[in-house]
Amino acid sequence: MKRCIALALAAVIVGGAPLMAHDDVTNPAVKARMQAMVDISLASQWLRQMASEKRPFSKPFAEKSVATLMARAEALPELFAAQERDHASEAAPQVWTDREGFLAGVQAMEKAAAGVDTSSAASISATLKPLLDSCTACHKTYRISK
Ligand code: HEC
């Protein structure tokens, strides 16, 4: 029971919903793209936590989070190139039927990540919204939430 509470707390501290373990994903190509999203999700949560001072501000850590976002975003076009399937995947068919729109979504995220000002907690807070909006915008069309 104690362990459960500790785990639940850890999930809250990491930022909301516990992230999926991907043990049930059998297609390695799908696993790789889901893992990229998990990395993106973690990096954006760290920035959010620093912005709201739930996590102590650290400039190197903030810079590393932005670098992770940029690197993973850069990999998305390739990771989502082939229409790989898996029962656990949440990718909508539009990823492949509207590739141009999907790539525009990736670009929007890259631009928003580059625009995060990592000088202070307050500056992250003031510049983070476009990044979080870019997640929602893409998920609305290209991700099916299960
Ligand atoms: C260009 C489109 C796009 C952008 C931008 C995007 N995502 Fe995603 N995201 C997806 C798609 C598509 C999936 C489903 C992938 C699958 O299951 O095959 C996904 C899945 C996820 C998942 C679930 C991963 C898992 O374990 O299955 C998380 C968490 C996530 N995204 C977080 C984020 C966050 C946070 C951001 C913004 C910082 C973001 N995403 C930006 C398209 C995007």
TrEMBL record:
Keyword Transport: yes
GO annotation terms (biological process): electron transport chain
Signal sequence interval, chain numbering: 1-21
Pfam families: Cytochrom_C_2
SUPFAM superfamilies: Cytochromes
Entry GO MF terms: electron transfer activity; heme binding; iron ion binding
Residue numbers binding heme c: C135, C138, H139
Keywords recorded for this protein, A-Z: Electron transport, Heme, Iron, Metal-binding, Signal, Transport
PROSITE patterns: CYTCII
Posttranslational modification: Binds 1 heme group per subunit.
GO cellular component labels: periplasmic space
Protein's UniProt name: Cytochrome c
Protein source organism: Harenicola maris
